[in-house]
Amino acid sequence: DIVMTQSPDSLAVSLGERATINCKSSQSVLYSSNNQNYLAWYQQKPGQPPKLLIYWASTRESGVPDRFSGSGSGTDFTLTVSSLQAEDVAVYYCQQYYNLPYTFGQGTKLEIK
Amino acid sequence: EVQLVESGGGLVQPGGSLRLSCAASGFTFSNYAMIWVRQAPGRGLEWVSAVSVSVSGPYYADSVRGRFTVSRDNSKNTVYLQMNSLRAEDTAVYYCAKDGIITEGGPQGFFDYWGQGSLVTVSS
């Protein structure tokens, strides 16, 4: 199984500042035949289901604010919130869909400083 | 509007069974693989199972293989998760999710819509 490791486990950032969450996979999730990274990011607020933010490592889901961006390739990925808003307080998960079983990172809790 | 509504959760004793249902609407159900993901209290997300559009699969996590059975009824736009031989460690909120990529085969990867979840508690 591919192990997904996120860092940090928790993060406190001031409103309007940048937040950066890292995700590392135990093996590459870059599929050479189509040059796509099989990596997604989700946001989960308390009491709610996860919400898809980013797929193919950097494609923003429709309706997701452009302050959210994804980057990286191979085994190292980053989710960036360019200017933190109060409504961004949540737990964020990365997920690989390169192969089954699909696996998630342990989550990063993002809070306001 | 895409909607996924889970039902069937509840309290069950160890060794017991439950069947979860997920009723889908707002999209062409027969064009997408469907997925179950669970989340134990205070814990992270765990992929559980996927059911294909075609005859491929179904697919299971090692932790549930041989005990859980996933199925779908395209005439009812519903996916099911039959859970047998339940254990305390199966206690979780179970989410139904829609695969994000149209397919004629198995699951493709990311999950673009999720239900609100159904709580399963395994306890004596």
Summarize the structure.
By secondary structure, chain A is mainly beta. Chain A has strands at 4-7, 10-13, 19-25, 30-31, 36-37, 39-44, 51-55, 59-60, 68-73, 76-81, 90-96, 103-104, 108-112. Chain A is globular.
Structural commentary:
The complex is a heterodimer of chains A (113) and B (124). Chain A is mostly beta strands and 113 residues long. Helix content of chain A is 0%, strand content 51%. Chain A contains no helices and 13 strands. In chain A, the strands form 3 sheets. In chain A, strands 2, 6, 7, 8, 11, 12 and 13 form a 7-stranded mixed beta sheet that branches. A 4-stranded antiparallel beta sheet of chain A has the order 1-3-10-9, with no helix packed on it. Chain A has a two-stranded antiparallel ribbon with strand order 4-5. With 124 residues, chain B is mostly beta strands. Helices cover 0% and strands 48% of the residues of chain B. Chain B contains no helices and 11 strands. In chain B, strands 2, 4, 5, 6, 9, 10 and 11 form a 7-stranded mixed beta sheet that branches. Chain B is globular, with a radius of gyration of 14 Å. Chains A and B meet through strand 6, strand 7 and strand 12 of A and strand 5 and strand 10 of B.
